[in-house]
Write a structure and sequence with these properties.
alpha/beta, TIM Barrel, five-stranded parallel sheet, globular, binds zinc ion
Length: about 150
C-alpha cells in the first residue's frame, strides 16, 4: 500500500487521462492520494476530485509561484478546511528562486500569503503543506514567528 502525498491531478494535462491515471495508481497499489491546491480559481476542481473519488483527498491553498491570482483570506481557508475531504492547508510557502532581479522587499506578498496559510493551519488544526525554494531561512523564521 502506498499513499501519494502530493499530486496535481486537476492540472489540464491529466484531465483527459484521469481514468488511466487512476487505473495506473490502483495497479501500482497507490491506495490513496492527496490532490494539492495551487490557486483559488482551480480549487473547486481539486475539491471535486476528492468528492468524486473515495480514495482521493484535497488541500486548500495558494502556491507562492502564483503571483497574479486572487489572494485567499484566512476566513476562506478556514471555511474550506471544514470540508471532510480537505485534509491540509497549502501548498504555500516561499519561492525566491524565481524572483529574478526583484528586491527582497517586493516579495512581501509571498510572506503575507504564507502567514495567512500558517494561521489557517493552526486555527483549523490541519497540516500545512510547504513549498520552499531558495528561501529556507525565511521559511523557518516565519514559521517560528507564527
Ligand atoms: Zn506541488
Amino acid at each position: 500500500m502506498f499513499i501519494d502525498s502530493h499530486c496535481h491531478l486537476d492540472f489540464p494535462e491529466f484531465q483527459a487521462r484521469l481514468p488511466e491515471v487512476l487505473a495506473n495508481m490502483a495497479a501500482c497499489k497507490v491506495t490513496h492520494a492527496l490532490c494539492i491546491s495551487v490557486d483559488i480559481p482551480d480549487f473547486p476542481k481539486v475539491r471535486k476530485l476528492a468528492e468524486d473519488h473515495a480514495h482521493l483527498y484535497a488541500s486548500v491553498g495558494v502556491h507562492p509561484d502564483y503571483e497574479d491570482t486572487p489572494e485567499p483570506s484566512f476566513e476562506f481557508l478556514l471555511e474550506e478546511a471544514k470540508h471532510p475531504k480537505i485534509v491540509a492547508i497549502g501548498e504555500t510557502g516561499l519561492d525566491y528562486y524565481r524572483m529574478g532581479d526583484r528586491s527582497y522587499e517586493s516579495m512581501e506578498w509571498q510572506r503575507d500569503r504564507f502567514r495567512t496559510h500558517i494561521r489557517a493551519a493552526v486555527a483549523s488544526k490541519k497540516p500545512l503543506i510547504i513549498h520552499t525554494r531558495s528561501s529556507s531561512v525565511d521559511t523557518l523564521k516565519i514559521l517560528k514567528e507564527e
